[in-house]
């Protein structure tokens, strides 16, 4: 199947089939790039397993035959970025940069393999440091700049140059793909460097970054962090299924189908008081919650508000998402690790800082300094729109790390900043009921959106978000829906928001106009 991918669009771009082994050997002696040290060049045959760089993983699959380049570029005197570029033997003239996740010090080998299998010349970096944590940021503003915006831009420029040298022709189109932090990186690229990418595939974008981590800390504090599991508001693991059951009892049928999936969590007005011991469905013999625990749920399933202005600064945790595998990361009695690292090593540059009194003042201070401009909360995408760029973004409604309401707020922010305010010509958002963070969950989450879907990736744009983006950029066919597949093989059409909503017609899910 993968060998057929892209044939629908190959006539739109320049393509090349080369002797990768000899071309790769020649590149090893001829490749010279400014401020860049080539650490290794090697030809890798299809269906191989290779050793990987960095501490994040030890090996990676290589599906297609590639020339593999590993290098380091100095971004300043005190910072550098390591990157890998995978150049497939069969190239369709397209270049792609893949993003990162979390606190972003891991080369995304899964997406490098995925993209090169679709005949993209592909580059990915460590985002300026090694490991998925914030310890490298302490008193290192240039490393923070690499993380916040620079690594993706530098990678895009170098990758295009390498592809041109290797194939002896420049790429006809340039793309980006990433989710979570990778989604934020895509949005930041469109804002700061609108000429870098013709098309951006951005999943669950971690925009409004400081407030995202603030909400993580806010949720942790609600269940007793940093005091741990001894706090009276802490909710142990065995009670969370009870919470999920109560939420589904109240909200599963809002979409007309009892399937364990809440299509529109924003319609779910969950009342946790039914779980209070001695009242409602909670009683003294069945699992129930104390007043402190019920109060904690009220905080979690409410937006984070600025206590000074009474304005919402982050949407609530999506009802239903507490059943995702990510839930323990927020509600384990400790401050979420990324939030902990960010405030200690970046906001305060103080590894002795505790979260005992953490609150709105700490959030306001993070807003004030906004390290590296990392917030990525700006609706002025006018330059990217005017140059003809396209953004396809998706977000799961079962996301236990980034509330899907954040993507609604981003869409509305951009719409309010641009004229005309209708974004259909360059920006399309798709919500995926039952999708967890970037992938997984009980819903139809396989959209061809990332490397871990390579085994089931479809070669048509109706079922593949990456190819849908290519179709839009190169063929002008803007997607109104994308069909996803679940782990058990069921399919569901996911709709362009806000123009369409997902409705059950008695037989299948369809996209119905909202007006």
Topology:
Elements: E1 16-17, H1 20-30, E2 36-44, E3 48-51, E4 59-62, E5 66-76, E6 79-88, E7 90-91, E8 94-98, H2 109-117, E9 120-125, H3 141-167, E10 173-179, H4 181-192, E11 199-203, H5 209-222, H6 240-251, H7 291-300, E12 304-305, E13 312-314, H8 327-330, H9 337-347, H10 360-369, H11 382-386, E14 390-396, H12 405-417, E15 427-432, H13 465-475, E16 481-485, E17 491-497, E18 500-504, E19 509-513
What does this structure look like?
With 515 residues, the protein is an alpha/beta fold. It folds into 3 domains: 1-171, no CATH class; 175-207 and 376-515, no CATH class; 211-372, no CATH class. Helices cover 29% and strands 20% of the residues. The protein contains 13 helices and 19 strands. It has helices spanning 20-30, 109-117, 141-167, 181-192, 209-222, 240-251, 291-300, 327-330, 337-347, 360-369, 382-386, 405-417, 465-475; strands spanning 16-17, 36-44, 48-51, 59-62, 66-76, 79-88, 90-91, 94-98, 120-125, 173-179, 199-203, 304-305, 312-314, 390-396, 427-432, 481-485, 491-497, 500-504, 509-513. An 11-stranded mixed sheet has the order 2-5-6-9-8-10-11-14-15-17-16, with helices on both faces. A two-stranded antiparallel sheet has the order 1-7. Strands 3-4 form a two-stranded antiparallel ribbon. Helix 3 packs across helix 4 and helix 5 packs across helix 9. The model is unreliable at 1-12 (pLDDT under 50).
What is the residue-averaged pLDDT? 93
Uncertain segments: 1-12
Number of strands: 19
Gyration radius, in Å: 23 Å
Name the overall outline: globular
- Helix run count: 13
> Proportion of β residues?
15-25%
